[in-house]
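Hi there,

I know you've been waiting on this one. I reran it after we fixed the sequence typo, so this is the corrected version. Both the input and the resulting structure follow.
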Amino acid sequence: MLEGALEPSMRDDRFKDWRPSAHLIAAIANAGEQPIAFLGGAVDRDRLQLDGLIVSSSAQGAEGPMLLAALYHALEPSIAASGATTVELWGKPAHSWHRSLAQRQGFEEVRSLHQLRCDLPIDAPVLSTRAFIPGQDEERLLQANNRAFASHPDQGNLTTDDLAEAARQPWFDPEGIRLYDDPEDPEGLAGFCWTKIHEPVAPGQPRLGEIYAIGIDPDHHGQGLGKPMTAAGLAWLADAGLTTGMLYVEADNEPALRTYDKLGFERHRTDTAWQRRAASRSARS
């Protein structure tokens, strides 16, 4: 377990259980019996998404880039055998050692995400929403999601299997998926706000109520639904006892950033992704 070695300010739910498995490849650098650096991730939709972390403050200087470079070299056979066509390196948040590794290995920067947070409850108008009903609303949610996120690299093209896998996760709560029915189409959704509750992983950290995904069907764009749909999700989280709201937004999504600013969100950190094509096993042999 890596979690116990993390400084409290750097802990989040990504590090609850970083043991290599059939879905996760990882390399860890130790100093004595204490892990000081980690690089690992899993393949999703042909992309291997790697997180790099330096967990020792003494190694966050000049040693950081060398540690991550050594871990990446150790993972190269597993990366080649993973079946991924693309490798992404994520800095959560981004640091100089992530940028150094990206430059060394020929990665190109492709995305930056801001994590925003706000105090709950907020004072804003909300839409009247209802909870997701398992066994009834799957197709409606998938259709609305895939229309709203048609070109999104993570949230787009969700399948029934993807939704079933999410439903098996301990954080899944159908009550926390707030649906806004299409007033003109009883079989469709005009929008949805999917929330997610993160329990603290270190003493003194707050429970976080995340706006995991918020989507407005393209037929309803321009109707001013984004802000009250977000507010509906935040209101549900506040009613569930959460005092801190959180979401991720693309750093270049100016309209969304303006909406979230009006709701009281402030930037907490910035995550950055670098990307390159994966070398196949045959190419490396």
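Quick highlight: The mean pLDDT is 86.

Best,
R. S.
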